[in-house]
Automatic annotation (TrEMBL):
The lineage of its organism: Bacteria, Pseudomonadati, Bacteroidota, Cytophagia, Cytophagales. It comes from the Bacteria. It comes from Spirosoma endbachense. Residues 7-129 form the Gfo/Idh/MocA-like oxidoreductase N-terminal domain. Residues 136-275 form the Gal80p-like C-terminal domain. This is Gfo/Idh/MocA family oxidoreductase. One of its GO terms (molecular function) is nucleotide binding. Gene3D superfamilies: Dihydrodipicolinate Reductase, domain 2 (3.30.360.10), NAD(P)-binding Rossmann-like Domain (3.40.50.720).
């Protein structure tokens, strides 16, 4: 790279209503000493020019292929819908670019494994946006567990609400309700949160899963249409972790008037409770409480201030910025500290196991 800064090209940037505009753009601006946003490409040239003007990006590429082939781009950031990830990521990797792709990396396990293998063969930095695993609260939680705050972990329980996947939506989000698009409650909110859970407590050994739907159709509020819904709105998993700890997970569609995120870790010497206002652990402000020994009531466990150094108070921006910070260091030092495509494949193996168990109504055991 000729410049000290990493030159970024974004594919999928909408100034009106898309994830990249509220997370990636402010995160990159927060780290402007490390990154330069050089270009953008969207589904049309007109859309790219609109985004470039809105965010003062110097180059609006005519299409994605021109962006990934440009000598002015070091890092390709892909924030489009899951169904388009495979072709765009593959093109960027084949052009020898570093890649940051939002989770889910692929539409299903095979696409994910193929992209992970290709990234490894190209020896580039290939990062997936499972940003919960780098959230300051999760890093502190992992530290507490590793230092023996709860002693031996005996069990863990997780309850969450998906937010979407109830009985109504808007037309722009209807793709979430069609399972074949790969953007389901399993792959997005639960997938992100399972990435965090396994980062702290380790992988699953045995699991049994059930997935079901309360609603076979969804009301499209802004058009009045009724459309079919093929994505499940209830996901239940029980099993054991590789450590031997028992695990129970229940995610449900919509929003609860009561609890939307509750994660408990129970151990031989203490207990920890993690809460949040929504079930998307990757973008939620997590709060940690705990008690151990002779303590009879939970108390706040405050994340050390230095873990938030250089971040904003918004976890949506801050957690994405955490990935970019690690990505920059990985490019400079040829390390692998950011969540990688191999991590994405590991996570999708777990999601696939849940789907298989739910499909066949029986346990799925490793090895």
């Amino acid at each position: 790279m000729e410049s000290d800064k990493i030159k970024v090209g974004l594919i999928g940037l909408n100034p009106d209503s898309q994830w990249a505009s509220v997370s990636h753009i402010p995160a990159l601006k927060l780290l402007s000493n490390k990154f330069d946003i050089i270009g953008v490409a969207n589904s049309t040239h007109e859309s790219a020019k609109k985004a470039a003007a809105a965010f003062q990006i110097p180059n609006a590429f005519e299409n994605a292929q021109m962006l990934v082939e440009s000598n002015d781009i070091d890092l390709v950031v892909i924030t489009v819908k899951v169904a388009y990830h495979f072709e765009l990521v593959k093109a960027a990797l084949e052009a020898g670019k570093h890649v940051y792709c939002e989770h889910p990396l692929g539409n299903g396990l095979e696409e994910t494994k193929t992209l992970a293998a290709l990234a490894k063969s190209k020896n580039v930095i290939a990062v997936v946006g499972t940003q919960m695993v780098v959230a300051p609260e999760l890093l502190y939680l992992a530290q507490l567990i590793n230092e023996g705050y709860v002693g031996k972990v005996l069990s863990t329980t997780l309850i969450g609400s998906g937010g979407s996947w109830g009985d109504e939506t808007v037309i722009a989000n209807y793709y979430l309700y069609e399972k074949e698009n790969g953007a389901t409650m399993l792959t997005i909110p639960l997938g992100h949160t399972l990435a965090g859970l396994t980062k702290v407590l380790g992988g699953f050994n045995q699991l049994t899963a059930r997935m079901s739907s309360n609603f076979k159709n969804v009301n499209i509020k802004d058009t009045g249409a009724i459309k079919p819904k093929t994505s499940e709105d209830q996901i239940m998993v029980i099993g054991t972790l590789q450590s031997g700890a028992a695990v129970t997970v229940h995610y449900r569609g919509g929003i609860s008037r009561a609890t939307n995120f509750l994660w408990e870790i129970n151990g031989s010497k203490g207990d920890i409770q993690v809460t949040a206002p929504l079930g998307h652990g990757q973008q939620a402000q997590l709060t940690i409480h705990g008690a151990r020994g002779d303590e009879t009531e939970l108390k706040p466990l405050t994340v050390p201030a230095e873990m938030y150094q250089g971040l904003t108070g918004n976890p949506v921006i801050g957690n994405v910025a955490q990935i970019y910070k690690r990505l920059a260091a990985d490019i400079r030092n040829n390390t692998r500290t950011a969540p990688s495509f191999e991590d994405a494949a590991f996570l999708h193996e777990l999601l696939n196991r849940i789907e298989i168990s739910a499909l066949f109504n029986g346990p799925y055991v490793t090895g």
